């Protein structure tokens, strides 16, 4: 990690020496000589740092030396960032006040006595800091000779991985017998008296598969059907009774409890499970303190017979303490099964010849797994990107296998070495990104897009020639996921991927970042560990209960760079001013979901701040103008801050801002000056101001003109109409926003919307389009040019009577039509009208496919539609001339709701491979296709596996039908 810290510092030193320091600071205190010496020492240390990084694992003295070096690197980075920020702040401030006269600004920079005095003072201060750091580094550079370091060449190049490298390893878990044993215990007769609950413990080494086994049992179909309630709680260390009780209640009741006292929570738990048969999984229990368990246990009695508690733990003593009725010891896997898991990952997508060439050496590497499936997955992920036999042999003969001395209190040795090997095989920049995750608590659900922004905030990602650090972060994430450093992936959409770290991997990351990353909670608050290490901590997560006052001891962490505070305590707001005064090195601040009502003015002192997350701070009412002094701010998230009505007026000063999220907040407009933030990558909502008191402060669409890096999702609200608005829209040039993937255009129902919508032409690569509350008569001409469009939603377009030939969109997979004035869905909608100009040679057949990739079709509230026309023949049937037509050949899901006049479904829909058909509040269709004894055309749909009419479900021969509801 230290190696990755040095590289950007060296680059920044070179840049500063070439610019301001050489010309200005040198005149103040002659610091150039110090800077040159500093750079020389850094280069000398950098050359041996890879060797030092590896030796520190078994040599405590080397580790201390590396830690000292890291501290100096952090200090140096802060000084250089302070220098750059001072220059940038000056430029931002004067540019704001004197944008009309750039020449005057430059003259002021050179000649103003006041400015020169202030700059001399500031630069003298920075120069003294540079000198102090230089002296520290000089001492460290001299010490390096004591350790006999060797030159060790490491690469910062990423090895190529396949896009399908995230394979499902669980299918070769080798735990079938244990799974059946666990399921049998869960479903069997209770050995306890009425009211008591049987406890089953899974005991085994870390990384042996306890959690995976518990998940398999938890999700078993018989188990799901047997229990009325299923609850999963990750306990970890420490055993927090309040948090556990809250987690149980949240899953029982479907919402977070508003209680804070343990006894109140336990009383509610007892009431919620009374008379119900439940399964409670307590995953990763460490505590041996029976008093903690005895507090929680009584609330779980009184349930229905057959209830179970399933515990996973690494300690036999824990199983005994919890009064286990059935203990299942999870043994190591056989070499054969470990080899199978390893091969499944390592040989994924390889050719047969390649597999045969590497199988023998792969078996030898797999034997290093010592029966641990996590080790097999980690080693398999390591080998996945290695193509030659020489690379495989190099791993097998690595000197790291010879490390016998490890800290067994921190990391279990069986999994330590495979993790260490895979870790050191990573480029140093990727290692640093992985180790950063040690700051999160165990079982913390991370989000990919936010983690990448956090890496950027810490300066871990180098900017590419295209300026796209986010793409680099995506690459790093994929590498770490392929190595099994991340797991439990959940994909909500292309942008929202969530995941966790295995407990053992988390232990490993914390071991490697000792003294740098810390998690504070109510149990270790004020404890010895925190008090002795807080001054050196760089990345801190605080998980505090509502009753816990904010600890002032945090102020000792002067060099803190990341701070994540998870608390609902309203007193946090009062603690923030002093916090901001003391912790001025912070680069990342996450206060999401807290109860603060305002951000204090002192936030402007956080000159290094890059990432500020205020999401879901529901009581937050205001942001100070001093926030616009944060010249380095890159990400600001105020999503779901529904009490927040405005952003700071001078937000245009934040010229380094890359991501601005405001969706779900009460923010009524984007302030003027947004046009200056030309590096902006994310702007999720742009609300057009509709006049009134905010008009003079609000940006109009024209200000989007030069923001061509905006990508991902963009929602434009409150679009009106008229020539002036159309002119603004044309000036915005949405078509040049090539990174845009999803666009929502929300209008105000005006018939003049037709003029405006033509000017809002998006880029041709758009993948998702929603048009809502559009008042025009016709859809825009540009719509049919969106050949990569995958999803289209047309909602509440009250005057829209005719649809364009949407069937011609070649990549459309999802279509939603809601509350339109359309009266019929015919050949024009399909886009298969005969082309009078088409020339077909004799004997040839013209093949036409309408909606070739459509999989999901939703039709809501088309209350005037009577006819949904077929074309007089079934799919694939040829007419008497020369045309073969296929319509919706991939349609899987069809929802039709509140179309009271619709008389029938067309033949091509009935012939499509439908898997789901939902018809609600369509009386004619229900009568026609309803149950067999009442619907004349029931047989036409009876082959569809899942059918639902109105508000009831039926069982067909194939499956039980489920009521489905959807919204546009």
Any chance you could write out the topology, listing elements then pairs?
Blueprint: H1 2-18, H2 20-29, H3 32-55, H4 60-97, H5 102-111, H6 113-143, H7 176-187, E1 198-203, H8 210-218, H9 221-226, E2 229-236, H10 241-253, H11 262-273, E3 278-285, H12 290-296, E4 308-313, H13 316-321, E5 326-329, H14 335-346, H15 352-366, H16 373-384, H17 389-396, H18 413-424, H19 428-436, E6 446-447, H20 448-457, H21 469-482, E7 487-491, E8 497-500, H22 503-512, E9 517-521, H23 528-533, E10 539-543, E11 562-566, H24 572-582, E12 588-590, E13 611-613, E14 635-637, E15 659-661, E16 682-683, E17 685-687, E18 712-719, H25 723-732, E19 740-747, H26 753-759, E20 768-772, E21 791-795, E22 814-818, E23 824-825, H27 827-830, E24 846-850, E25 856-860, E26 867-868, E27 883-887, E28 893-897, H28 907-910, E29 916-920, H29 923-929, H30 938-941, E30 946-949, E31 952-953
Parallel strand pairs: 1-4, 1-5, 2-3, 3-4, 9-10, 10-11, 11-12, 12-13, 13-14, 14-15, 15-16, 17-18, 18-19, 19-20, 20-21, 21-22, 22-25, 23-26, 24-27, 25-28, 28-29, 29-30
Antiparallel strand pairs: 6-8, 7-8, 30-31
Helix pairs in contact: 1-3, 1-4, 1-19, 2-6, 3-6, 4-6, 7-8, 10-11, 14-15, 14-16, 15-17, 16-18, 20-21, 25-26
Q: Whole-number average pLDDT? A: 81
What does the radius of gyration come to? 32 Å
Structural class: alpha/beta
Q: Helix fraction?
A: 25-40%
CATH class of the largest domain: Alpha Beta
> What is the domain total for the residues?
5
How much of the polypeptide forms β-strand, as a percent range?
5-15%
CATH level-3 fold name of the largest domain: Leucine-rich repeat, LRR (right-handed beta-alpha superhelix)
What would CATH call the homologous superfamily of the largest domain?
Answer: Ribonuclease Inhibitor
**Count of strand segments:** 31
Organism: Populus euphratica (Euphrates poplar)
Domain Disease resistance protein winged helix: 439-509
Domain NB-ARC: 180-351
Pfam families: LRR_R13L1-DRL21, NB-ARC, Rx_N, WHD_DRP
């Amino acid at each position: 990690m230290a190696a990755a810290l040095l590289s950007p510092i060296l680059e920044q030193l070179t840049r500063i020496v070439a610019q301001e320091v050489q010309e200005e600071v040198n005149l103040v205190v002659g610091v150039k000589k110090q800077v040159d010496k500093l750079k020389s020492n850094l280069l000398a240390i950098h050359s041996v740092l890879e060797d030092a990084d590896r030796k520190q694992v078994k040599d405590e003295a080397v580790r201390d030396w590396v830690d000292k070096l890291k501290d100096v690197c952090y200090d140096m980075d802060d000084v250089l960032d302070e220098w750059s920020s001072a220059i940038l702040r000056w430029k931002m401030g004067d540019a704001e006040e004197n944008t009309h006269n750039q020449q005057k600004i430059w003259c002021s920079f050179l000649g103003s006595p006041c400015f020169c005095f202030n700059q001399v003072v500031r630069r003298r201060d920075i120069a003294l800091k540079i000198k102090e750091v230089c002296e520290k580094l000089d001492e460290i550079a001299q010490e390096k000779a004591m350790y006999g370091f060797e030159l060790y060449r490491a690469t910062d190049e990423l090895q190529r991985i396949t896009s399908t490298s995230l394979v499902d390893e669980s299918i070769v878990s080798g735990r079938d017998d244990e799974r059946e044993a666990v399921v049998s215990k869960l479903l069997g007769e209770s050995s306890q008296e009425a009211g008591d609950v049987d406890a089953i413990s899974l005991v085994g080494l870390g990384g042996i598969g306890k959690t995976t086994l518990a998940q398999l049992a938890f999700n078993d179909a018989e188990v799901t059907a047997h229990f009325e309630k299923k609850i999963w709680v990750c306990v970890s260390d420490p055993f927090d009774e309040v948090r556990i009780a809250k987690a149980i209640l949240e899953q029982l009741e479907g919402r977070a409890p508003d209680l804070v006292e343990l006894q109140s929570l336990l009383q509610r738990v007892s009431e919620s499970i009374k008379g119900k048969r439940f399964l409670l999984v307590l995953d990763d229990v460490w505590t041996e303190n029976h008093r903690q368990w005895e507090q929680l246990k009584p609330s779980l009695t009184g349930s229905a017979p057959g209830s179970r508690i399933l515990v996973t733990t690494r300690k036999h003593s824990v199983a005994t303490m919890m009064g286990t009725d059935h203990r299942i010891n999870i043994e190591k896997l056989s070499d054969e099964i470990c080899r199978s898991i390893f091969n499944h990952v390592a040989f994924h997508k390889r050719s047969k010849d390649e597999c045969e060439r590497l199988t023998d050496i792969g078996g030898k590497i797999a034997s290093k797994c010592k029966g641990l499936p996590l080790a097999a997955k980690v080693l398999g992920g390591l080998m996945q990107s290695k193509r030659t036999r020489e690379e495989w042999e190099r791993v097998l003969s690595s000197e790291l296998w010879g490390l016998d001395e490890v800290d067994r209190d921190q990391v279990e040795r069986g999994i330590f070495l495979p993790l260490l090997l895979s870790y050191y095989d990573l480029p140093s920049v990727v290692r640093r990104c992985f180790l950063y995750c040690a700051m999160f608590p165990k079982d913390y659900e991370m989000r990919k897009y936010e983690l990448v922004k956090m890496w950027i905030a810490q300066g871990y990602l180098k900017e590419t020639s295209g300026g796209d650090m986010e793409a680099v972060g995506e690459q790093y994430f994929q590498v770490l996921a392929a190595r099994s450093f991340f797991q439990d992936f959940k994909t909500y959409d292309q942008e929202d991927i969530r995941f966790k770290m295995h407990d053992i991997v988390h232990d490993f990351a914390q071991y490697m970042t000792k003294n740098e990353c810390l998690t504070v909670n109510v149990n270790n608050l004020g404890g010895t560990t925190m008090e002795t290490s807080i001054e050196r901590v760089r990345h801190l997560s605080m998980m505090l209960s509502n009753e816990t006052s904010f600890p002032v001891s945090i102020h000792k962490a002067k060099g803190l760079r990341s701070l994540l505070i998870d608390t609902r305590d309203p007193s946090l707001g009062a603690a923030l001013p002093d916090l901001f005064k003391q912790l001025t090195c912070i680069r990342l601040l996450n206060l999401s979901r807290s109860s603060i009502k305002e951000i204090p003015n002192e936030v402007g002192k956080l000159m290094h701040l890059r990432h500020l997350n205020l999401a879901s701070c529901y009581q937050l009412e205001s942001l100070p103008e001093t926030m616009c002094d944060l010249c380095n701010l890159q990400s600001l998230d105020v999503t779901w801050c529904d009490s927040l009505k405005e952003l700071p007026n001078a937000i245009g000063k934040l010229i380094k801002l890359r991501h601005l999220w405001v969706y779900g907040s009460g923010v009524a407009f984007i302030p003027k000056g947004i046009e200056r933030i030309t590096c902006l990558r994310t702007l999720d909502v742009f609300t057009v101001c509709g006049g009134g008191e905010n008009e003079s402060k609000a940006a109009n669409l024209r200000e989007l003109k030069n923001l061509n890096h905006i990508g991902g999702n963009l929602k434009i609200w409150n679009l009106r109409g008229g020539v002036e608005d159309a002119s603004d829209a044309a000036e915005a040039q949405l078509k040049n926003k090539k990174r845009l993937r999803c666009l929502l255009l929300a209008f105000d129902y005006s018939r003049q919307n037709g003029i405006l919508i033509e000017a809002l032409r998006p880029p041709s690569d758009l993948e998702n389009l929603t048009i809502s509350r559009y008042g025009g008569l016709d859809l825009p001409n540009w719509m049919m040019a969106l050949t990569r469009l995958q999803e289209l939603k047309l909602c509440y377009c009250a005057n829209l009577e005719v649809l364009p030939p949407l069937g011609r969109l070649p990549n459309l997979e999802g279509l939603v039509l809601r509350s339109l004035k359309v009266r019929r869905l015919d050949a024009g909608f399909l886009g298969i009208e005969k082309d009078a100009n088409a020339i077909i040679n004799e004997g040839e057949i013209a093949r036409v496919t309408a909606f070739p990739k459509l999989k999901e079709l939703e039709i809501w509230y088309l209350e005037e539609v009577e006819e949904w026309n077929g074309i007089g023949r079934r799919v694939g049937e040829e007419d008497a001339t020369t045309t073969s037509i296929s319509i919706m050949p991939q349609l899987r899901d069809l929802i039709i709701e509140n179309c009271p006049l619709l008389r029938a479904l067309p033949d091509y829909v009935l012939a499509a491979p439908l898997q789901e058909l939902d018809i609600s509040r369509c009386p004619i269709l229900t009568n026609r296709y309803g149950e067999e004894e009442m619907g004349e055309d029931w047989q036409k749909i009876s082959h569809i596996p899942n059918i639902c009419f109105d508000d009831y479900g039926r069982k067909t021969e194939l499956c039980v039908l489920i009521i489905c509801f959807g919204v546009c």
